[in-house]
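Thread: "does anyone have the structure for this chain?"

Original post by V.I.:
We have the sequence but no experimental structure in hand. Need at least a predicted one for the grant figures.
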Amino acid sequence: MTPEEQSDLFELLDIAIVETGVRDHRLRRANEPTRALFGIAPGEIDRWTWEDATVPGELERRNEQARLRAASGPDRFRRVVRLVRPDHSVIHAVATTVLRTDADGEQCFLTHLQDVSEEIAAHDRLRLVVENTPVSMFLVGQDGRVLVREGTAVPQASAVLEEARDASVFTTFADSPQVTSVLRRALAGERVQEVIEIFDRCLEVHLVPIRGTDGAVSSVAAVATDITEREQALASLRLRTAELAAVADLGQRALEARDAAPLWKRAVAVIGDRLQADLVEMYELNADGNRARLLARADRRERPTATPTGTSPSGGERAACSPAATMAAEAEQAGVLLTASVGRPKAPVAKIEVRRAPGAAPFTDQEAGLVRSVAAVLGSAALRFRMEAEIRHRSLHDGLTGLPNRTALLDRLARALRRARRDGRRIGVLFIDLDQFKTINDTLGHQAGDALLRETAARLSAAVRPGDVVGRLAGDEFAVVCGNIERIADLEAIADRALAALRPPFLQGDRLIGSTASVGLAVSSPELRDGETLLNAADLAMYVAKRGGPGRRASYQGAPGSRGTAGRAADE
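Reply from O.Q.:
Generated one for you, tokens below.
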């Protein structure tokens, strides 16, 4: 090809071509596509130099490389260069250079420039995305070697993956069977999506088999995404959901519970299970806010330090009261402690204490929230139990004296009669009526009458035997249920003590108030089998005593007109 033909070809080809001298590195020629590549205005291409187009600091290095190649070959070489446009933007170009000799015998470089800025930029953007997101990408060969890897999903794995370039994944991850298993499945042709745990991280991996022209799997493309935070959040959500479900179940039990003790035990068990606590205790508090008694305990220690003894009327367990035992228990229980009050903030009725062994992890805010939620449920339940207990107490007790009322007294009498029949024993009843109550009420006023009734209740309760039940039936009428009565003389002795206790007057304000009482006695028998009948028999005997004068007693001996009448009134 003649120099003229080469010149025409230089101008005709729609590719960027420049010609540079080997000795002086002077730009000898540049065609129109080169002008377009560099953004040079028409007519200014002749004034354009390599100094104008080179990133500062790179020209000398590039010229030195060109001299070496001209001296030692090869006569064709390719490299990526950075070039500067007049607007100071930088482009990347693949420079393919050929060493040739011109018509004058002078050596020159003929260089074809191909703009690859978009490709470089795309690669850089992809690199930035991969390096700044919890994603890693791999290409693994059939032999298990890592051919390509990008990204930093698990920085701890970098050294191991670098080793896998020269060795094999099957060797470097031999102690991680989950990793080798998913890779073997992918190399066998299966698309795999699985969550694995490695290097204390949780990764979601996608493996896609890549098949060659023969259809066989030649490599596996893998993408690993670090989902540790997501899994932790999901685990926390699942834990929170389970806790809410436990609290909701406890709330339902609190609404349905008829007895407090099982609810307290369930509550401490729930806290112990959810928090993996060594010891959970619930204490009732007294008016001063101090421990009154142990209501429930969930003890996971190998050696419990304090064994509760006794059972409270509401089902709670009484704490061991030995000072030495208490001190030893507190010493062993020292550790991580979490507490919550049950009931109103200013007037708590109970306290929950949750303990972990010394050195254990501290309780988290979420765990503390669970205990507070349980305490809130129990606080509402305690209020309900207390209100229901007050309602039951009021429905079964006299509001003025606090004694059992007629309904409660008849219930206790019925139960006492059933036990007596089973044990072959007898039950006695005293029916007591104050003699001058109406006169006192009319002359001294209701306040004095109420004081007399309260004083009567107190004196009767002190005069009878332990286990005997004193109740107020109505107005100035009282009754006493006495168990284990073998003969009428036993009941008469109790009646005599009651009459003696009521005889002395008492001081109410600046006045002395006194009143005697009439007492009727009746003892259970085949004829007097139920509570109402027995109480009515004692009532009849009381009227006999009252006819004999104030301060007397009389015993029932049979119904009038049939088996006899009440006995004579005894004069005290």
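V.I.: this helps a lot. The chain has 17 helices and 24 strands.
O.Q.: and The first helix runs from residue 3 to 12.
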